[in-house]
Amino acid sequence: MSTDITLVLGATGKTGRRVAARLRLRGTPVRAASRSSRTRFDWTDPTGWDAALEGVSTVYLVPPTVPGPVHEFVARAEAAGVRRLVLLSGHGADTWGDSTFGLDMRSAEDAVRGSALEWTVLRPSNFSQDFDEDVFHAPLVAGGLALPAGEVPEPFIDLEDVADVAATVLAEPGRHAGRVYELTGPRALTFAEAVELIARASGLPLTYKQVSLAEYTAALVEQGVSETEAEHVSAMFELMARGVIAGTTDGVATVLGRPPRTFEEYVVRAAAAGAWDR
Ligand SMILES: NC(=O)c1ccc[n+]([C@@H]2O[C@H](COP(=O)([O-])OP(=O)(O)OC[C@H]3O[C@@H](n4cnc5c(N)ncnc54)[C@H](OP(=O)(O)O)[C@@H]3O)[C@@H](O)[C@H]2O)c1
Questions:
Q1: Using alpha carbons only, what angle is made at residue 190 by residues 139 and 137, rounded to the nearest 5 degrees?
Q2: Do the domain assignments include residue 94?
Q3: What is the rounded CA–CA span in Å between residue 51 and residue 53?
Q4: How many angstroms separate the alpha carbon of residue 16 from the centre of ligand 1?
Q5: What's the CA-to-centroid distance between 59 and ligand 1, angstroms?
Q6: Number of structural domains the chain divides into
Q7: Where would a tag sit more exposed on the chain, N or C end, judged by fewer CB atoms within 10 A?
Q8: Full domain range(s) for residue 20
Q9: How far is the CA of 203 from the centre of ligand 1 (A)?
């Protein structure tokens, strides 16, 4: 059995599947894992972790949605002979302070950064693809977004850039050891501007409406989002309103030697693929 496998967790998710494809193309042996992947991996069931870690040198770690399990996972990884961990976290994680947002990612950072292994932390801002692959997609298809986002802009990052950075870091042992990369797009824009760009590129009459945090949380639950997830997303908007994570960074250029993709590039691509058509 090879001892140079890269274990990709969250392999069916937005970053994991993009990272796995890039690594395979480079010829890296990949073990794609999640609850529904061929290699079964469940954060709530540690009995399966050792099998997933066998022969693994490097892990792309998408954390669980609750704080805690990554500590035990890192201990198992060390015992299994893993050498490197690349963790997906979130933009400005050490500025989130008393916010209830991202306790899952902060716990995972503690576990990874406290380990004896070589580690790198990736901290992307909100993904552009949240508008066509995640929580903002359904309301856009229904005609528009109603958010408590206000005037503070967000430096949306294209998931293709997050995956390019992750695959590059995973492929370059040593060079990114102990580094925390803050990853953003090239400019920050408000949600109202984002919706306007999507409306223009797709030719659809999409609207943006400002609502209160309480109204937004209630609407998410009504749409079928769990209360925990609704509170998590609302806490994110509360945090964004503070303005401390609204700035752009040079993380993508530092790793890739080129600027990040623009939001407009994303919008054109997704509109051409019919992402928001009814
Ligand atoms: N969305 C954003 O704008 C944004 C921005 C910055 C950071 N982040 C962070 O990015 C992370 C999410 O990454 P992502 O967007 O690539 O993933 P994702 O699209 O949310 O997908 C989640 C992945 O995790 C797997 N998964 C879910 N529950 C699991 C469990 N109990 N055990 C094992 N695997 C499980 C899922 O596959 P199965 O269902 O097959 O298990 C799936 O592959 C979160 O930590 C989030 O906070 C998100």
A1: 20
A2: yes
A3: 5
A4: 8
A5: 15
A6: 1
A7: N
A8: 5-125+158-184+247-260
A9: 31
